[in-house]
Sequence to fold (176 residues):
Amino acid sequence: MTYSKRKIFLGAVLILTGSYLLWAQRPVNIIRAGDRFEYDPRFKQGLYKGSEMGFSDNEAYDIVVDHMPLTEWGRIHWYLDHKAELKNKYNIPASSSYHITFWDIGDGFIDGDKSGDGDLACFNKVDNSNENCLEKEVLLSVDFDKGRWEEFHFHGCDSYWFIMPNGHPGLFYKTQ
Fold:
């Protein structure tokens, strides 16, 4: 039985397309989520904790995930679709102005002391393990200032997306 080059090519395209679609449909897995400064009591003094002490209410959060969508627009839509879940399950955000950073788990948490890499993002320790650092791979940053709109930033981009109060998306190019 002989196959023409065209049939082989079409079969390969179908297999690759199907594989990509299966991979892209995997759910995003949230590994860790919490306040950025929860591990350091010095930052619980009101400067970052907010309005009860008379300072501006602005908090930062870190969320470590496995398998975010590949595209910027896909990541924004995932965040918008799961915003209520983040609020209900992790109480993120708990303030009226916030910054949320989504980190890629990559190869997993590593021991920052044993790693020769100085460019790590380290988090609070959950157990007795010293493996609490990640390679710095930011997938998405979300900023919201009370009275404005949510901004979506991506590492290495000179622009950012935003959703205006009327719900319309926009793309803003930064000038340098």
